[in-house]
Structure formats: C-alpha cells, structure tokens
Hints:
Distance between the termini: 43 Å
Structural class: mainly alpha
Mean pLDDT: 94
Shape: elongated
Strand content: 5-15%
Number of strands: 4
Largest sheet: 2 strands, antiparallel
Helix content: 55-70%
Radius of gyration: 24 Å
Strand order of the largest sheet: 1-2
Number of helices: 11
CATH topology of the largest domain: Fumarase C, Chain A, domain 2
Amino acid sequence: MAAKAWGGRFQQQTDARVEAFTESISFDSRLAAVDIQGSQAHARMLAKVGLISDDECAQIVETLTRIGSEIEAGNFEFRFELEDIHMHIESALIERVGDVGRKLHTARSRNDQVSTDLKLYTREAIQRVDGLLKDLQIAFVERCDRDQDLVLPGFTHLQRAQPVKAAHYWLAYCEKFDRDRQRLADCLKRVNISPLGGAALAGTSLPIDRHYTAELLEFTDVARNSLDISSDRDYLAEFCFCMA
C-alpha cells in the first residue's frame, strides 16, 4: 500500500504546508470506534454474499478489534501522510493481514464509509444527550418534592411581579428539555439511515446486501439515492441547531 493515499499521482514530495492543511486525522481520529464498527459490519456482509470467505471475514473482524483496542489505549501511531482515520485503520489492517485486508474495500468507497461513520457518531451523540436531558428532568422533578413549600418571586421588567412556587419553576425547565428531546428524536429519524452501498456516488454492481449491513448497524432503513447519501450533511446542521 502506498505511504500516501494519492502518492501514485505525484512525482515530487508534497509540501509540508499542504499536508498540514489537508490532513484531518487531528480531529477525525474520534471516529475510530464507529469506523471500525462500520467496517466490521461491511466485512460480515461481504462474507454473507460470498465476496470474501468466512475465514477472511474472521481475520478482518478480529484484527480490526485489536486495532480499535490499541487506539483506545493510546498505543496507536497517527501520521499526517495517511490523512484520515479511514486510511490509518485500513493501512494498519493491511500491514497485519496482507491482501486479505485490501478486500475490505470491496464494494465500498471512502465516501459512503465516512458518511456511515458520521451517521453512527451523530446517532451516539443524540442518544447520549437525550439520556443526559432525561436525567436532568428527573433531577428537577425530585427537586420539586423537596421544594413543595418554597415560593419564589416571579419578575417582569426587572421587578417582582407574582409569587411562583419553586416546583412550578423547576417544571418549566422540564417542559423546555422535553421539547429539546423531541427535536433530537425527530433529528434521529433522518440520521438513522444507512449510507453503505452508495459507494463513491453511484452505487455498485456487486451483489451486496445493504439491508443486512443496516440491520447489523441498527439503522432503521437504507438510503434511497446514492448520490444524495454521498454528499448529504444537512443532518449535522440540524443536530447543531438542536444543540444550540
């Protein structure tokens, strides 16, 4: 495997300033766990449809698990010349299992790969934030029980206006957080769609099983249009709005 993703295109060494500008590993290394999760599902699908053998699938899945453990433990070396997390993991896989590792790229592009990573990462973020908001709501309700007799001044125009029970005040926040959770749940509907199979942008003629990888990764459905799914990022903007 070439040291650099596009090494075969150029005769001269890339300027260090260009490498520093184009690399993404300094921030997309956080996608390592979901990248491995998606790759393992893809490998299992390739074995299911007969594009790789069961033994090759086992080698790929087990090696990816070890690579993931090394990354989590901080024992994995990241290098700018490998650009992103996908190339780092793929390079490490090929170094360890040889040409078997190259087969993981069958019927998959970095385009549908990164889209899958971002979907999985955003889904986990939504679920984590939703859980925290739920805990916060529970804490406010418990506070209501403790503050049953507490009365607070309600202000309008910077002046005391009406007395308000503290419990009423705490429950107002529960309502706000409930709307936040509803927005996140609605955003999740658009996030939880599998991009795998879209390949670079126009799909693949290989006999893949998109519904199987979607099932393995717990997506609720598969994308209907490969061109759309290879470039859509509106769900990220929507998630950012929900978090604003």
